[in-house]
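Record 1 of the preview.
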Amino acid sequence: MELDKFVCKSYRNHDNSLKFSWSSPSNIALVKYWGKNMDQTPKNSSISFTLSNCNTKTSIVFSKSEKKLNIVDFTISYDGDIKNDFRPKIEKFFAAIVKYCPYLLHYHLEINTKNTFPHSSGIASSASGMSALSLCLMSFEKEISEEEFSSDFFFLKASFLSRIGSGSACRSIYGGFNIWGKHKDFEQSSDLFSLQINQSISPKFGNYQDTILLVDENQKDVSSSAGHSLMDNHPFSIDRYAIANKNTSALKIILENGDLFGFCDLVEKEALMLHSLMMSSSPSYVLMKPQTLEIMNEIKTFRNMNNVPVCFTLDAGANVHVLYPEKDSKSVTDFINAKLSKYCFQGKFITDHVGKGPVII
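->
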């Protein structure tokens, strides 16, 4: 059984406290994942690229408990302050993964985490957070496991665990471009973990830029998890899943051929479809702000007038990701400063680019 390979079957107890720390990036989906199964697998495949500057730094201190516990014992803090509103999500995560990581029932976990960007505002903070947490767990498992496993398996299981905590988190384990979800055009692709696809990407997408315009730094009104559940009875869900898988095939060709304007067209359509699904859910909700619409119109106008392949995408929030090739950085940065920064909260934006993936601290 495929799931059985992720179970840690033999491990030794470690009496001394051990600490592991990882910095893991967020990622931005180009073909969107929206709608999931009960086992936290996706209804459709998605393609993303990993960011660099938007990341979560997480450390865990593992301390031996006097006896085996019934549930995973942990405390969690954000930048040094206890964060009890994070507990329900982490408790649910540990309850789901303990069958794969049974050693956790023998330890107390002191978790401390911090983002370099606003969390719960639509920049996939759960992706960076859950991937960083899972990588810390895997570092501990590597230390105590009596079974030898490869570096490839280390990251594969980290991606597998991350997905259970937050679907998009599995795409943050690897740098560059990634696919998650079984798809006919990607050999070895899986619903259980992400797969890196960098070997077939055109150099035109090398060090691709992403400037994130912070329209709204507040926590979004509807969580991504709640949004996914509304797809279960959505009138357009079946058509959406078919279109997403078709767009995955189309984006594969675009990334291989280096079709920058084709990239713009597909990525923008995917972003708009994501938000149209939210607006046509029951109950419906709107996460875009008036400034979001202004930014999108400005980008389209600039692209058409200057023949520069710059485009927008959005996650489930109001903030806008401005995507463009590195060679056009000067003209696009000037455009952002002159035309788009005024739509940002206090003029704030984050300059980012395709990243190389998580790093151990």
